Amino acid sequence: TPEDARRGVLHGDLDAALTIDWPDHPQPRSPELDETILLVEPLLVTHHRNASKQGHGLNRFERSTWVAASADTGCGATLRATCRRAGFEPDIRHQTNDFTAAVVLAATTRSVAIIPAVLRPPLPRGMTTTTISGLERHVLLVNRRILAPAIAALQAHVERHLADLISPIPPP
Fold it and tell me: What is the pTM for the complete model shown?
């Protein structure tokens, strides 16, 4: 978990960790740790191809039912906060913290779900994804400050390969 990764680095069990930070569910910061955002990863709204085309951005899914992660997770908190900023409360009918299960549930119940672009599983027939501006999470490199020279090489290597994980997302 993001909490375990930070704790492991802070206590010296790990030299560095790749972890996630959610803008609407940030992790506590520590002055002993350096944190570098390596990727601002879009979250994809997964839905049936014939879902409502009315409205813009997230509002086009305002009347949809949702599959969501629990509210105490970064993904769940981000979905709820983003919908509220768009002016509506999501109608969450199904809850799972597993992104693959969320996609399958969305397909079988004609609901909507969000999934990280890097973790996008194969989509069931009839499903597609939409990117919504501002719906994102951050992939971070967290390390102890005293290791800065060695971490620079790790950071450069990871940055070279991270972007390949989400570009481009082929249509289903």
Answer: 0.81
